[in-house]
Amino acid sequence: MFAKILCLTFALAAVQASGDFTVLHGPDSINFHGEEPVSQSLLKEIFTAALGYTVKLRGTWSGMSIIDPFHLPEAVVGIAVEGVNSLESPRGKRYPLNVDEGEETTWQILSGRLEKRDNMNIEVRLSLEDGVNALGHSILGELKPSAEQHSPKSLNPKNEADRKLLEEIQLLDAITKKVPSAITADDKPDVYWFVLSALGPVIDLHGADSAAAKEAYTLMNDALARLSNAFMDVYSGKVLICAFTNDGTYVRHTRDVVAENRADAENSADAVTSDQINISKVYDATYPVMFNIFLWFGVAFVFSLIAICITIADMDPGRDSIIYRMTSNRMKKDN
Question: Are 79 and 241 in contact (CB under 8 A)?
Answer without folding.
Answer: yes
